[in-house]
Amino acid sequence: MSAARRSLAALVAVFLVVGCERAPTLPKLGPDDVIVAFGDSLTFGTGASRETAYPAVLATLTGRTVVNAGVPGDTTASALQRLPAVLDQHRPRLVLLCLGGNDMLRKQPEADTENNLRRLVASIRASGAEVMLIAVPAPTLFGRPPAFYARVADDLKLPLEDDAFDAVLRDNRLKADPIHANAAGYRVVAEQLADFLDDAGAL
């Protein structure tokens, strides 16, 4: 085989390997399985009512129980302290993990935030639940979700949704203030999460 053909064959093999890689999936949820939305004010629904926060809307869209375990002001460090009680109380099958915004607002070292996210994922998995990671944009002009979300997701083989809040918080029509959605914005987030869960095999 000529050198050119060997190079072509190697290139085709690389494309085949890459093409076979799939995004991490989730097990299908049963009708009685509980989802816990674990996060900060974006999960709690600051800027709207609890009834229009994304967990409530997601529950309606999916027909599943979605527990709103959002605490305004929560950081990844404080979340580590309260996570065990939430897991013990609700026994979820799936946890939607959406944290990091307050770490960024308080200018915590990214390495600490990333490490805390990894510890949160480990604790959730140790309880027997699956994890879906939801990224939020950096609180800067035209900020995108920081790279640590993708690193955590890649290393721990997690489904990562990194578009919903990023898109909503760029649209003034969907925001209650610079860092929170309004009711319409949370509905958009819930709809995108429902589609993501469906594509990941959970619904």
UniProtKB/TrEMBL annotation:
Listed GO MF terms: phosphatidylcholine lysophospholipase activity
Coiled coil stretches, renumbered: none
UniProt xrefs under Pfam families: Lipase_GDSL_2
Domain SGNH hydrolase-type esterase: 37-188
InterPro entries registered for this protein in UniProt: Ester_Hydrolysis_Enzymes, SGNH_hydro, SGNH_hydro_sf
Domain of life: Bacteria
Name of this protein: Putative lipase
Annotated source species: Thiobacillus denitrificans (strain ATCC 25259 / T1)
